[in-house]
Each structure stands twice: as structure tokens, then as C-alpha cells.
Fold each of these.
Amino acid sequence: MIDLHTHTNKSDGTDSPRELVNKAIVQGLTVLGISDHDTTSSWQEAKQTLRGNLSLVLGSEISCLTSDGVSVHMLGLLFDETHAEMQIMLEETRDGRIPRMRKMIEKMRSAGFDISMDDVEAVKPVGATLGRPHLADALVSKGIIASREEAFNGMLNNDSIFYVSHAAPTPAEAIAMIRRAGGVAVIAHPFASHRGQILKPSDFEPMVTAGLNGIEVDHRDQTPEERAMLRTIARELDLAITGSSDYHGGGKVNLLAECQTDPLEWEKLESQADARRVVRV
């Protein structure tokens, strides 16, 4: 079983890297991708926990914005953790999340909701990349909403009046950086229409020019029709086709390995990194 897209409590998941690796081993996964938002801070603990037949694919899910303001998430996998430019880009993207969070909180307070930055910090794990799920957790703790799922279906949806975008690289810039750092770039859930505005088929061409390696096709947030269209696009552009859970522990209903990547597609993707960085015991 190959699951290339999961999160720990170093960003917006609820499992520690150690807990996530242990769950993957118990469930019989052979390849686990850990891609916390805009950070590599989960890598060391995950590697220290690794044992048995499990292999680790370490990376980061990079927050991007197109020139016309569409939010895109780019999975950078198998890149060199010591690549200085890559780490600077991740740090700058993380830093951009703070003023964005303050603006969203200001909008909510103006609408009469009793929520503050201190409330968000109180529920965010120490050292985690700040994100909307932490705002959702704060709203739950204050009794304003019942769950993260309710938050993302309403107050925190991309189309909500409370939504605020943040400074981020374009998809092409993120892809180019991932490739310079020796990794492979896979666009995450690009047709997940319930999240808000999505990409058009024509948007993939410039990303391929920048070095895109794959498309996350099988993901619970994409309908069968959306998956079929993405599968066709990937084949036409000779891109790897992946399937992933986007597991967040207790933070989302997504189950570990509920969507998986075919071993042949994984082999195609992994071969395009500039070095063999899959971590094995």
C-alpha cells in the first residue's frame, strides 16, 4: 500500500510523526509520504521511528496562489532537506500565514464572533505550521462550531466572507524550486471543487513547462468525473498518477491509505528525483 500525502501535528494533523509512522506500520503500508504544510519539521522524528518494511517519502505540501488568486497546493517530495533556497521559501510561506490568520480573526470579530489569536495559539501544537484547521479547532473549543468539517464547509471555506489568501509562490515557482532542490512535484487535489475555485485543464501546461511530475488524481475530495478528467490530463501530459489519503489524524474524516498510488506510477514518479531519497531501514 502506497499513500503519498499525509500530515502530522507539525502542521495541521493530530498525530505526531511517531504516531503516524506506527499507524502506517500496523496497517501494513509499504510506502508512506509525509508532507506537512510548508515545513520539513516532521522528518527527523519520522525517520527515527521507522522500522520493518515501511519506506518513507518525505516532503512538504506547499501553499501556492495562481496569478488570478486560485489557491493551489503543491506536494514537493524527495527534495534535499538542506537546500537553502527551498527552506527559505518554506519559511517565507509560513511567515505569511500569521498576518492572514489575524485578518481572518478580525473579520470574524467584526461579525460578532468571540475569537482571538490567543485562542488559536492555545489549540495549536507547539512548533506546528499555523493554518485554518487551528482556527477551526479554536472555534470548536469556543463552542462557535461543532467540528473542523463544519468549519471548512462554512466559515473557513475558500468562498466564505471570512476567507483571506496569503502571500505565497505561484504553482510554477513552487515547482521550479522543488525541482532545483532535487525533488518531484505533484499537484494535490486540483479539481476538489467543493473547496472553492479550482484550476482549468489549460492551467496544467505552464506547470508542466515548469517541471510538474504528477497529478494527485484519486482523492476523496474529487468526484469520479473529476478523477476521470484528471486521469486523462495526466496521461496526455505523461505525468505520474497518484492516489493519496490526505490523512490528518482526528482532524479530518480521511482514513490512512483510503486512496493509494499504483506501484508502477510510484516507480515512474520516484525515478524523476535527482537522487534516491526514499528512507528505508
Amino acid sequence: MLAKALAGGLSLQGTGEALSIGAAGLFMRSLTGNPMDVHLHTGANLRRYLLKLEGVSLRNKLLALLTWHTGPEVRSTQNRMEPPPQPNREAVAALPVRTQAALLDALEESIYTQPPTDWSKVTNLGQMRAVPEVKNTVNLAQQYADLGYDPDALISRLATIVVHDNFTEMHAFKHHQATFEEFHATRLPWRWRHLVSAAQASAISYGKNMEVYEEAVELLHA
């Protein structure tokens, strides 16, 4: 599909943007509860970075775009997908309308109150699934986007949540940075997909393992 679009005249930058939008859509369909699926986003983000670099040959830029889907972290996601469209528009429409501040608080609470993981039932981290309550966070983030609220306020709030994480060995950190960059590099109306994806990743990672954060807080007397 990308090759056909390029042959039809789509620019490298336009192809990179399309890849990024598609990656965000696939991430929101993902059922994963493990760190790996963030590579859907970070892989696209890296390729868009390479497209802007001088000294990278046209051949290598094309190869970068056309091989995004070949990584094992990306390929494994195809077995853990919900049907489109995601988020569920009916569920989003049913939410009560809140002010920006109230909606940010509701979104944060939805993440902080995710059910705890029963690690005795986790035999393969790579196959770990997210709890259904993650979708509550996704729906709230989509409502935030639909209402046209301040994106920077959402980015900042999610950042304060992501920094708790060391379960994903910094995958959540990388994903948050990637979604921030992709939001600012993508045009409307598609750019908000990245921030909704950021909310989903925050909900998946929060509470699993926060030992580094907790030790740092104790040492800093924060």
C-alpha cells in the first residue's frame, strides 16, 4: 500500500505521516498489556526522524518506510487486535460532558484505579492482555479530543503518570515522547490519535512496577 502510494506521487513526508496515523490507529485497536506494542508508534516516529536527515540516501529512506511492519514487536500485534473502529464512538458519546479540568481529573482517576495485575496468572509477558478498564481511559481521552481541549494540558498530565513506570523498562517513556512528537508533526484531524494512544499506554503501564519512582521520591523527600 505504501509502495503504491509512493509510486502514485505521494511524498516521502506524506507517506511518513500516513504511516504514523496508521500506527496510532493500530495501537488503539491493540489488546496488549505488555510493553512491546508501543513500537508501533516509536518505529513510525523514528522513521519520520530519518526522513528529515541529510545524508541518508533515498534508497535507505524508502527501505525505512517499507520495512516498518517487519519488526517482531509490530508483527506480533496482529494477533491481539480489536476490530475497527476504535475508540468505540457510542461509548464516547455516552460520557457526561465535563470541563477540561474535570475531564483531566476523571482521566487520571481512571488510570490510577486500574485493577491490579494478578501476576500468578501471567506466564508469558509477551502475551499479556490489558484489562478492559483501559478502554475507559481511552474513551475519556477521545472525548477530550472531541471537545477541543488544550493538548498541552493532556500531555503534561499524562507525563506525570508515565514517570511512575519502570515495569516497561522505559518503553512508556519512549512512547510518550513519540506521541508528543507525532502530535505536533501530524495535521488535523488525525493528530489527536497520538494523544489518545498516549492515554492508552499510560493506563496499561501504570501500577505494574513503580519501585524506581518510589525509591527516588523517598531519597528526594518529595
Amino acid sequence: MGSTVDQPAGRPRILTGDTPTGRLHLGHYVGSLENRVRLQDEYECYFLLANMHAFTTRADKPSEIRESTLEIVRDWIAVGMDPNRSTFVLQTEVPAIAELTWFLAMLLPFNRVMRNPTLKTEIDAKDLGDTYSFGFPMYAVGQCADILAFRPQLVPVGVDQVAHIEMCREAARRFDQVYCGVDPHAEEEDYEKLGGVFPVPSALVGRVGRLVGTDGQHKMSKSLNNSVFLSDTPKQVKKKINSMYPGQSREPDQPGDPAINPVFDYLDTFCKDEALRAELRDRYTRGDNLGDGHVKAAVIDSVNELLEPMRARRAELEGPGGDDAVIDIIKAGAVKANAQAEHTLALAKDAMGLNFGDRRSMLGL
């Protein structure tokens, strides 16, 4: 059941991704996307389109999920994620993930899964009550399989996903202890060296763990209608930033407090000009004839400077033939992704005593 597929020497691996629930926004960018772009040359990168997970709450909207999947690929390429340097993985085209999900589900107690704070938050945010599908909690286990199928060392995520990564780490440790005989007291970084199938991956949080939305209160979220999307036009960016409440009422000649003004969070996050940031903060604090509109204007310019090359790259995948180009990228990624995930599954099944023959030949392939 073995395979020759494995990671190149000297290049550790990362796996991360997005559930196709719509277009990506600035919060996604600073939370994870810019890390993915930066790490492409240092790591062997697998980027997952978790379209199977989208069905946990939108099983009756398959056409929307399909379109959102294509939109995310466009966003990825727009930000600089390169399918020639990284592997784009469409979850539903990698059957080994679903099989591994089943095995991992036997190692994680149900009450542990339901204590996952991210899962609980999503149930509340989407007002699911007790009407969510049987498959909904399974997605938390499935996310562990998404990651472990590719045996990465790092998982770049936003801060709200760290709880999911912790459960994945538990699943990796539990599997290696139960089926590979790894000592529970062993150091996590030694699990593979001691015969474990899975490394114990670590979360890598972006430089901004939680970007506030344009409402100035809640985390940026599509569902809260407080997002600046990576595909927004300059006019849309200007309108959204100008709508932000600065956290206080003041005149330009009155001192203000940047610490309670979310516009300054955006200035610090997106404005590259350190001298300009310092000047605006100083003048605002002293009430030196500086209105909120001046700060917003600097933010608008900075955000549009960031997004302009993204708009250009995205435009190449829109219009006639755009969907076909995206699908070709997905197909190419599926070949490499399946080779790696099948190799991992073979290792896992060997460890579990389920090595009854070559899987491909049994399937007639």
C-alpha cells in the first residue's frame, strides 16, 4: 500500500484553507492569506477549498457553494497564491480525507468535539439552536482530517481557528499513541521520529489576529455585512471606510484618542508609511486641526494600494473562459493532492492493521 510520495528534504509543509461561503475580505488577508503568500517559497504548500464543509449548513444550496468555490480560487490567485508553486486542493476531489475523517472520529469523544469553542460560536452566530444537521459537528473532525491528510508542520490560520488546530493536535497525538506506540510523554516534535504517522502541527496566526469590521465593533464577517472584500472596487472601499464610526464625537481642533478609534487600527494595519502614521496619530491626539476624514482618506489610499494589483490579477480569471481556467487549476491540484493524501491514508491504514492489498488495484485503477 506504500507510495513514493513524500515531502522534499529541507522543505517542511503547511496546510490551510477556506470554506467557500463567499468572497474573501481584508480580515482573511491579514489573518492568513498574506502568510500563505509569504511562505510559498519556504514551504511545500497545500491550500484547501473546504467545499464539503460548506454543505454542513447549506446542503440545499449546491449552486451557491460551487460559485463560492470558484470565487475563492480567484481571490487566492489575486492575492498572489500561485498554483505553480503551491497545490490547490478541492476537498470533494480527495476521497482519502473523508475516509480519514471516519477513523479520527473514533478517537475523539463526542463531548470533546462539542466543547470546541469555535463550533459553539458558529452554532450561536448562525442561530442553529439544536436544528443543525448530524453532519455539522463532524466538520470539526473533518477539519482535523483535512490537515492531517497532508501531514503538515504548520497551519496558518486566523486567531478564531486556533481551537480547531488544538483539536487536530489532539487527534494526531491520539492516533500516534494508539496505533504507532508513541509514548504519551514524548515531546510533540519527536512523534514522527518515534514512529508516528502524523506530526503534531502548530498554528501560525497572522500579524492581525482579529480585524474589526467596518461597524467598528465586531470582527470582520460576511454575515455581519461589515466587510471590505478583496474584490471591492475603489468606490466601494471608499464608501465602506468612510462609513466607519470613529469611536468618539469630536471636532478637528479637539484632542482625540486613537486607542478607541477603529480607523487607526486600519491605518496601522494597512498604511506602509510609518512617518505618516506617526504624524496622523500625533495630530489627532493633540487636536491639531485633523478631522476623522483625514485619517480615513489615508486608510482608503492604503487599502486601495493593496487591492489594486489584486484586482488586476483577478480580472484575468473573470469574463469568458474564466470559470474554465479556474477549473483547470483545481484539476491540476487534485492530482498532486490525491497522491499525497492516499500516501498518508496508506500509512495510517498500515498502522491500524488495515493493509489488505493495494488500494488502486482493488479499485481497478
Amino acid sequence: MNIILLGPPGSGKGTQSTYLSSAYKLNHISTGDILRSEISDKTKLGLQAESYMNSGDLVPDNLIIEMVSKKLSLLNSVLLDGFPRTLNQAESLDNELALLEKKIDFVFYFDVPAEDLVLRLSQRISCKNCSSIFSKIDKEYICSSNCKEQILYQREDDKPEAISKRMESYISLTTPLIDFYDKKRIMININANKSILEVSKEIDGIMQS
């Protein structure tokens, strides 16, 4: 089974991807992790990507797709979190999957009202050491077990003045992407403006139907 999670920043994709990977034995694929691994291993793709990054440029879609395709060829079932991000990436991914005789089974879109997303993101704080994420309204902040020293801070792009720009960028890039998967009849809207458990149960109901 192959699944894509889509949704704006702060919609809860990361939390649900952890749950789904464990509950349904899916291999969680993060393009960021793949990119870092390719660069660390000094592969041909990694060296090409690193040259773009060192120049301050975005890594081209064709390189990202090639990295993802390489990973997909080794796995039976995957969970793609926040990828593809553009229509071009979605079309390229479809082509690569067809070559591997695979397909996407579900695309879950995490739907949250814009005003609630702004509140969520503006309340978010992170640990610099282990990247654990918390909300300012939490009663306590417990980092991952391997965190040696908790250092909390608010990311620049989680500050109110930056959030609206992120949302505008997200909407412009993903609206065509949503239409693309909707036409394929594999996209399902998830009401992500609920508790973590309620969102998980909604997805379970779809997966197990």
C-alpha cells in the first residue's frame, strides 16, 4: 500500500505519519531525510543536490524525483509525508511509479481552517538539540530520550509575521496538486481540526473499510 499525506504546515501530518507508519507497517519517506542521506553518502545524486544547495538554489524537481524513485524501488509499501509538493512533482512521481508497476492508493488531505493553523503555528516551539516539537499551551515539554540538553526556541518561520507568507506559498503550489489527485478519485479530505486520536480514528475508518 502506498499513501501520500498532504496538508498545510501545522496540520498534523508529521504526527499522523508516525502513527500510520507503525500501525500499517508503512515505510515513512521524507524527502529531507533522503536528501541528507544522499549527501552524507556522497552519491552522484547527493553531490549534484549539494552543489545546488551550496549555491543557495533549490534542488531541482528531477533530482528529488530520482532520489525518491530510487527509494521506492526498494520498498513494498510507503508513506510519503508532504511530497509531492507541486503538480510537476506529482506527474513525475506517477510516471516513475508506473515504471515500477506501482501506484498511489490513498492521498489524505489534512484540512484545517486557516485561522486555526495560524494559531497552531504561532504557539509551536522546538528543541534545538533533538527537533522535538511542542505547543506553548502544553503543561510540560518532554524531549526524545536521546536528547542530551533541552534548548527550546521558536523557529523564525513559526512567528506570526512569517506564517501568512508560508500559507500563501503553500496554497499557490498545492491547489493544482489537490485537483490532480481529486480527478484520480484517490484523494480524501480529513478533518484535521480535531484531536490527534480523533484524526487517527477517522483515517483508520477509511483504511479498514
